[in-house]
Specification:
By secondary structure, the chain is α/β, with parallel strands linked by helices. It has six helices and ten strands. It has a single domain, classed as 3-Layer(aba) Sandwich (Rossmann fold). 5-O-phosphono-beta-D-ribofuranosylamine binds next to helix 1, strand 5 and helix 6.
Length: 202
């Protein structure tokens, strides 16, 4: 299945996807970054994957920038849009157009800790368990229905950095597996709030 991966930063999730592309039946048409300096672009280049930079600061609106991305997607008959550390909010037009085809990974056990700084917030809230979630993207930020999660324990010695690295390890294992479910047609977004896995709402 043809896909694009949208990034803004280091791209360690992108790397785990690249390392598994053939096993998960994914053909990465392009890696698109909102940030020209993202290390993830280097990872893509090293893997021989075409790259594009769409820096929203250079466009007059969110929609004009998103239209650039939409063109790449439409020209290449992309069937899955994979957000991997993409730090821009997508326009409603983008989300409407590709509803059910956009996946995201978020570093918390959603619906807990939507938004940023999830690891510090989990520590501050004295949580014992934290983790990562893969979900379908809908117009509600980090609010689309969850497909799968992985958890980690928060130890008393953990800080935001150590916790981030524990969670990232889980992310790298989880995301390719869920992308594979998607490329196999096993998961579908039903309406705005439900996920179907193998024909059953989960
Ligand atoms: C990950 O924690 C991911 O869950 C979040 O942004 C981070 C990206 O890390 N959406 P990387 O760029 O994949 O290393």
């Amino acid at each position: 299945m043809n896909g694009v991966v949208l990034i803004s930063g280091g791209g360690s999730n992108l790397q785990s996807i690249i390392d598994n592309v053939s096993a998960i039946d994914l053909n990465i048409i392009c890696v698109i970054s909102s940030n020209a300096d993202a290390y993830g672009l280097k990872r893509a280049e090293k893997a021989g994957i075409p790259i594009a930079v769409v820096d929203h600061q250079l466009f007059d609106s969110r929609l004009t920038a998103d239209k650039k991305i939409m063109k790449v997607i439409d020209d290449a008959k992309v069937e899955v849009i994979i957000l991997a550390g993409y730090m821009r909010i997508l326009s409603p037009e983008f989300i409407d157009k590709y509803l059910g085809k956009i996946l995201n990974i978020h570093p918390s056990l959603l619906p807990k800790f939507k938004g940023l700084n999830t690891h510090q917030r989990a520590i501050d809230a004295a949580e014992k368990i934290h983790g990562a979630s893969v979900h379908f993207v809908t117009e509600e930020l980090d609010g689309g229905p969850v497909i799968a999660q992985r958890s980690v324990e928060i130890d008393s010695i953990d800080n935001a950095k150590s916790l981030a690295s524990k969670v990232l390890k889980k992310e790298h294992d989880l995301y390719p597996k869920i992308i594979h479910w998607y490329t196999q047609g096993r998961i579908k977004l039903i309406g705005n709030n439900n996920v179907q896995l193998d024909g059953q709402i989960i």
